[in-house]
Amino acid sequence: MRAMHxxxxxxxxxxxAAVYQCSPLKTVVIKGLENLQYAxxxxxxxxxxxxxxxxxxxxSRVENVEIVVVPRIPETMHTIIIKGFDKSGSPVRAxxxxxxxxxxxxxxxxxxxxxxxxxxxxxxxx
Amino acid sequence: MSDGRIEVRLLPxxxxxxxxxxxxxxxxxxxxxxxxxxxxxxxxQSIAKHVHSPVAINVFDMEHAYTTTSDGLCVAGAxxxxxxxxxxxxxxxxxxxxxxxxxxxxxxxxxxxxxxLGYARFPGRxxxxxxxPLQKIVPLHNVAISGRVVNNNSGTEVMDCVxxxxxxxxxxxxxxxxxxQDILWGSTGKEISVGIGxxxxxxxxxxxxxxxxxxxxxxxxSGVYAQTLKARLPCIVAPKEVLATAILDALDFGLRPxxxxxxxxxxxxxxxxxxxxxxxxxxxxxxxxxxxxxxxNVDTLAQSGPALSREQIIRQADTIIPGVENAARIxxxxxxxxxxxxx
Lengths: 126, 343
What we know:
Order of helices and strands of chain A: EHEEHEEE
Shape of chain B: globular
Helix content of chain A: 10-25%
Oligomer: heterodimer
Largest interface: A-B, 13 and 21 residues
Largest sheet of chain B: 8 strands, mixed
Number of strands of chain B: 17
Number of domains of chain B: 2
């Protein structure tokens, strides 16, 4: 694996392929990135995520794999970009605001799972 | 002697006005942990494990601590730690915070003059308001989050961020619960919505590390909309004579609205009824606008009638202090379950 960042389409394709390589009969769903049109992902961690997806997909008990991406920090500050255009589509005026959003932590996605292997490094050590 | 159990006061989820408490709320005195030989973290874990449902946990020190209200009143008892737990677990990174023990000296009063009262009145107690930011690994708000449970503003605002229900639990109401005394519950209304923004300058405050709102100003600065910010939330507060007493204590000590205290509707109305200086000249145009929108004219408030005595104000607190819609006064023991948890 080359030490470079992975593009969003590549990332989605790699994780989907990780499941299909184990069995084309198994399904995979990726949630949490629906609003992202462009992004780069850490390549090292993409490889680690691929390995984790493969490990689950290779488990004979697993039929469906779900991959959910949530903010690790449960209060995130976001910039709100408010843009106004004229009737020809030309920019007229924009305003930037920001807001904090409080999210549930990952625990809400893990209800019912007795076996959870936390492979994440501590915050600040990644 | 401890029997290997700790006593916890529990407000069950769904209990309360409107939709009720969005999550369970557990109140415990730190003395219970001490008697059982538990460190704070161990005590919090015990409660989380026992409740095993979404729960906000507030740990109080009723014997050795004091705290402040958002408008600068010093009162006995304080939250020293607050947590959020879901499914029996406290999130290891974001699930709990410990409040900072403040060192108060006369030099502190230059910046935070409202603390003079606590310094004089509670010499044996330590001041706790908000958390020590040094324990935070990322600069979050003063909030603990585990799963769906949010325990915000140092234990005074709880939410379920999946159902998105919320409840306001100002500190005086919680202190009533710890003392097994009456509480008032209802919907916040416009006066509380404006009042919680009429704060003071305070370090390590309940909402943020350095609260910069000078007495007489508004932290919300939302104009006519301040009255709607937190107006439709279920809340638990202290009966109004308790709030009136705390305000009168501060006024008798010589603290004044828009000077050392905030200019919240409650402080202004009690001060006006008591006939003391309101410092209207210190109330900023932004705060005036918010107050005027709920019918409080700071220039005419002082002339609204003859001054009342302390006893008269306490007796008439329900009519003098505005706020809380559909308010019902209840004995806290009617709704708080006392449980003993084996540790």
